[in-house]
Structure formats: C-alpha cells, structure tokens
Specification:
The strands form three sheets. Strands 6, 7, 8, 9 and 10 form a five-stranded antiparallel beta sheet that branches. A three-stranded antiparallel beta sheet has the order 2-1-5, with helices on one face. It has helices spanning about 30-35, 55-65, 75-85, 95-100, 105-110, 160-170; strands at about 1-5, 10, 20-25, 45-50, 70, 90-95, 110, 130-135, 135-145, 150-160. About 20% of the residues lie in helices and about 30% in strands.
Length: about 180
C-alpha cells in the first residue's frame, strides 16, 4: 500500500491485517445508448463511492507513522466490464461483449450509473442485486455492497433470446 510521510509517497509492505481495506466503486453517467448523448469511446468516471471495511484510513496511517494512506489505483475502464458480465447463453446479441473482451473502446455506451439509487440498503454480506428493466434489449441493474449503500450500475447487456423474452412476458414483464 502507499502512504505519505513528510510529503513523500512511500510504498509499504504490510500483512493484510495492517492494510487499509477499502472498496472503490466508480460512478459513471448513464450508458450513452440510454441517454442518447454523443459518444465516441471509453467511459467517464464522474465520482467515486469509497467504502472502508474495518479500520478507517486515518487509523491505518497512524499505525504506520504516516500522514495518510492512499487507496489502490485502478482504471474505471477496467472496472466497467466486471459490472457488465452476465450469462451469455441468454442472449441473441450481446452488445457489451466486445468491450468486455477488450475488442472495442465503447464500454461507456453500455455501462453507466443511474441518477438515483433504487435498491434498498440492507444489512448483509457483500452481494450483487439484479433488476431487469425492459428497454430495447435487456438492461441489468446491479448494486454492489448493499450494506454500505454502494453504487448502482446499469448495463445494457444485449437482446435476449425469444425463450427468455417469453419468460419475462409470462411474468408480466417486457424483455
């Protein structure tokens, strides 16, 4: 992990118990395919939900005689395909698949965050929730880390096979 001491950034090797356990959930705009905005490539991270598991960053910094600790760095472009994964056998066309495989740079066309959170906060272990939203294809809504009111993501996954569309229709849903 990285810490700051006397205005210098240093790498500290520490056992798991002495590290800052933090989850960073990037917040994106809605998928461009839903809101219709002009889109060229990539995905924009507009903010970040930061969830501390266990001790706060200040406590970990004090333990290491540091002024502050830094969360691990990662790319929002690398995170978005993780959110977009789904059972591919259910689809006629998987719009997001080329972006997941790194074959295209259009992840922001298919993955984003809604303007408001719909899933409730629950006291539970780490979980992922799905909500099927009928649009032109299957849109999946995912909430990570319910107990911390973690970020929600919207994924325009693809067009589902007729068998699954019929199942959704039989349940009174569109799909």
């Amino acid at each position: 992990m990285f810490v700051e001491r006397e205005r210098r950034i240093e790498r500290v090797h520490a056992v798991w118990q002495d590290q800052w356990k933090v989850i960073q959930l990037p917040i994106f705009p809605l998928p461009a395919s839903i809101d219709g905005r002009p889109y060229s490539s990539g995905i924009e991270c507009t903010s970040m939900d930061v969830v501390e598991l266990g001790e706060r960053g200040e406590e970990i910094a004090r333990r290491h005689d540091a002024d502050k600790v830094f969360p691990p760095k990662y790319s929002a472009e690398d995170f978005a395909p993780f959110v977009a994964r789904y059972d591919l056998n259910a689809f006629e066309a998987v719009y997001v698949l080329p972006a997941i495989l790194g074959e295209s740079g259009d992840i922001g066309r298919w993955v984003g965050c809604p303007d408001r959170r719909e899933f409730p906060v629950r006291q539970c272990n780490i979980s992922v929730g799905f909500k099927i939203i009928p649009v032109d294809g299957l849109v999946v809504r995912i909430k990570l880390f319910h107990q911390f009111d973690g970020a929600e993501y919207v994924v325009v996954a693809g067009r589902v096979k007729e068998l699954y569309r019929n199942y959704f229709h039989a349940r009174g849903e569109q799909g």
